[in-house]
Amino acid sequence: MNWLKPSWQTGLAILLVVAAVALGAMTTAETDALANPTTTIAYPYPGTKSLMFGLVALAAIISTLRLPALIEALVLFVGAHLAAWLLIHGIGGFEGTAKAPYFIILAAAWLLAWRCVAVLSSMRPASLWAARALRVLVPTIFGAWILILWEAITRGAGIPFILLPPPSAIGARLVNSLPVLAADVNQTIFKAVIVGYVLGCAAGFIVAVLADRFLFLRRGLMPIGNMVSALPIIGVAPIMVMWFGFDWQSKAAVVIIMTFFPMLVNTVAGLAASGHMERDLMRTYASNYWQTLWKLRLPAAAPFIFNALKINSTLALIGAIVAEFFGTPVVGMGFRISTEVGRMNIDMVWAEIAVAAFAGSVFYGVIALCERAATFWHPSVRGG
Amino acid sequence: MTTASPAVVAASKLGLTFQTNDGPVQALADVDLTIGKGEFVSFIGPSGCGKTTLLRVIADLEKPTSGTIAVNGMTPEQAREARAYGYVFQAAALFPWRTIDANVALPLEIMGLPKAEQKERIRRTLELVNLAGFEKKYPWQLSGGMQQRASIARALAFDADLLLMDEPFGALDEIVRDHLNEQLLELWARTNKTICFVTHSIPEAVYLSTRIVVMSPRPGRVTDVIESTLPKERPLDIRETPEFLAIAARVRDGLRAGHSYED
Description:
heterodimer, A: 384 residues, mainly alpha, MetI-like fold, 16 helices, flat, B: 263 residues, alpha/beta, Rossmann fold, 8 helices, 24% strand, globular
């Protein structure tokens, strides 16, 4: 049995194909068509059913052979995705009619993709570029299958659009509403989030240094700061709208309040992070407060400060979007979400969520890159 | 006993009591000590005998609670402000975000030396500790011995006349330690600095010092001061001579006398 390399995913996939064949009709439409052979009732997969079954079964069987990892992954990739594409394509026009074999074949294709990712993850490519490509490919297939399952299940089971639209509808909506989304991003992210984030983080940092410098501020402000940070900051959003008006300034104010305390608390902790020996060393040089701060304590605090910057990047986005629920000009991501929910345009809400997730990831990623560059010396970055 | 030149360190009736949660702890009691210019003085004793505390008092990192101490004729605080000494800690304490040359530049930057002079001094001191060619390395890319040598270079860079060293080679293996001891003597001969050296190794103390201060714990006090009769020129194999062994035996006796293991 040297030429065989079975895995539980492919074995189970073959069993599932057999089960799907045994259960017969894929959809209620097909059941109707089979029950009335004299009338012509249209049903999905008139010709592609056996093709799908065959694809899954064949890919599963081939991958059981002892093949080079790359070829095995390729066979699994093609089999899983072609079958999934045929399945989703064929259900068009027959949403909500799927029966058990539809979901069984979906599960079988998913198992093949699972096996494919497992094979790819265990590969140890020699070249740097191949390793890099692999690092992107594995999470991409993973993410793609979340969308594929979402699409196939919402359409096959006919889940009401208002509850959960399929990703294809969200994607179409996103592409068709690019100008609106761009205006919203401009209003919410490039005005409220960026301004609020920069001012909030800068204020938190400066107050942290002052609190470190002046004992009365540290003793007096820090306990109050901890109390204020426990307040539901979003609750102040309507007040900020009253103070600063409907436009982005009030949202920036909410973001400032949200980002201020994480920065303050982290920077104060970071300024205490330098070692006793290092501080004694600076003392032997008769280094003054600002020299010690600049040359020792701030570099030592950098990992803490970047931590706050990362936490704040997500907080800022949440703060700005939620603050727009309380009054805004007719543009902005939070405004769009709250109004489109009211108009039952759930696909638009999801499109905004997708854009916000993407923007948030980019924001976070940029800060993480800066962190790697600035704290290259820290054991957590240099690895050892 | 002191040389004709003014004392670099002069302590009399020096005492220091720490207030801890378990009540007061007497770290130093009645320490009388004078260190002249150009001397190499070792402080030796078991842990808890106050040898590091004494060094930290000289460096103004701790304040004495009784007695008087003068460094270069000034209070320790004034001496620290005047950057009268370089201090080498038990660990290298190099800043990981600075390269070796930038670490050596640290005191020079704080003292506001012009860039060109900084460069010249970095080159000279790194050469002195045999680290030329490692300027652009980060501390975590070097071995422990090299890191400690870089920290000595940092203490030498601003050319203070007094060097305070707190078990600088304690964490290193014996081969590296021998090598660094040899280099340290060479450096001391060349620069004519005054060195106060804390150690718990008898051979190290005898090999390096012109004078050995033996200390004992509870409370930390000086039990013996031994003048070394060894010549200034000391190859490593001097450690097998009867003269060396006689001094080492006296240090050992001093440690045993002041010690309280028997209690």
